[in-house]
Structures are given as C-alpha cells and as structure tokens.
Predict the structure.
Amino acid sequence: MKTTLILGSTVIDMIVRVPHLPVTQEDINTRSMTMALGGCAYNAARMLRLFRLPLFHCSPTGDGIFGQITGKLLSEEGLSPAIVVKGWDNGCCLCLVEDSGERTFLSTHGAEYGFCEEWLADLDSAQLDYVYVCGIELEEPTGLAMLKWLREHPGPQVFFAPGARLMHLDSSRWQAIEACRPILHLNEAEACWLSGNQSVEAAARTLRGRFGSAVIITRGELGAVCCSADGNYQALPGVKSEVVDTIGAGDCHAGTVLAGLKQGWPLAVSVDLANAMAARVVARPSARLDENEFRTVLGAWRQKIGKDLPGNGKCGIL
C-alpha cells in the first residue's frame, strides 16, 4: 500500500471551557483548562494512524517552549517531530468552548505552520497515493512553496480541507489549488461561501464542476453529503450524540474519509463511517478518539452495514 503525505501543523491546544464567550470588560470564571495536541493536519493524521495506514506527517516543530511541549506530547504517543526548526518556536491555539459545545479559536502561529521543499527532497512522490493539505497552511507565506511542490508532483491525489479561513486565501492561491483538481472536504457554511450557492446540493455540484473531483460537505448533526467525481450526489445521515465540544470533529471526519478512500472503499461508505466517528468525537471533551473508542465505533458501524469491504487484512484493523 502506498503512503499518504499529510502536510500541516501539530499545535498545542489550550482548551478553556467557559459558560459563554466573554464580552468587553466582562470577568467570568472558566469551567476548566486543559492542554492537548491538536492542529487540523495532526487530527486528520491521527485517524489514519488508528487505521494503521502508512503515512508521513510533514509537520515542523520549533525548539522553543511550545515546541518542546509538542515534542514531549508526541513522544508520549510514540512519535517524533518530523522536522525541528532551529531558532523558532511553535505557536498555540486558545480554544474557547462554550456550554453549548461550540468552539472559538484564537491562534498564534509559529514553526508548525511553515513549509520548506527541502523537507521532502528524499520523498519519492511515486510512492504516494494521497496528499492532505489544509487551507490554513496555504494562507501562510510558505504556502506558495507548498503549492509549488504540489504543482511539480502531480501524481498523488490532493485532498484539500480549506478550513474556516478560506476567504483569506487570495485568488492566485485558489487558482493554484484548483489546478490540482483536489478532493474537497469542507462544512456547509464554507461550501456555500465558496460556491456562491445557498443549497447544499447546489454547492456540492457547483464545486464538483469547478474543481473536477469529489466533494464532501459536513452538516453537523445532519450528517454529510458527497458528490463523486462523476457527479453522483448522496446524502448520508448523521449519528445522534450529545455535543460536549466540536473541536476536531471536522478533522476527524476528513481523516476517516481519507482512510476509507485509501483502502478502496466507495466515497459514500467512507463518508458514512466518518459521520459515526465525528459523532463520537463531539460527544467527548477532546479532539481525538482513543484506541478503544475507535474500535467501538468501527465495530458498531461494521455490524450496521453488514458487508465486507476492500482493505481486509491490509491495515490490520478490518
């Protein structure tokens, strides 16, 4: 099986639970404060790791205090920083989680959002099947170098998650990523903004026509819709869950879809499992699932669909 390249950040999430977002001059007490590894690319990569699928997460780490904390937390997972950037620290993300479960991010970017083509000099792109890219990385100054690398290595299929700051990408970067004909993974608000449509189905079909590949649009508790590269549109229902917080749910969904496609599953089947995984993520106070939770969701889902899928024996899970 070929390797999936994950381009993007591993960042420290400082998760602060509050009754509501503070307003100017308000003084409120927090419910709690915790620290964990996060970052869109890290969260997506973790799902591929749970499936025991081959990947390379090209995620730089600085050598300052936040970089050292990141390295320590990675080592506790049996991982090592892929690239250590000397003389530069990592940033962090302050995640404010309200009682409703909705989250608001205040981010400081550092070494984790950089990219250098030299980091991939020894990587044989012929051995890659997919490249995951997040829009937050493309927004950075080094995003131009990332787009250049993608343009010069057209073999693997690009899987693009634009993210909530997609409106900050300039037209030249949109044109460059559009030329890669990526699979798109985004939420309903992002899809409607990018397509100029109010209907989720119209948005999916418009984006499929514009980018020339499959489109996946998440809809929270309503599940998700997908439109394949050949124009087949399907809506997949959500899984009921009590929302604790929504941090990482979209990244988990994207990583699960990517894991399914990597194993040769149909798009709709991959999205259906992603709905189940994301529903479990929002029901717990963390952006990620542990091994036992992952296996529980996967086992229940396999019983529901009641059929074998491609990939048996290839990843050690199915």
Observations:
- The longest helix spans residues 267-282.
- The CA atoms of residues 70 and 76 lie 10 Å apart.
- Residues 312-318 have pLDDT under 50 and may be disordered.
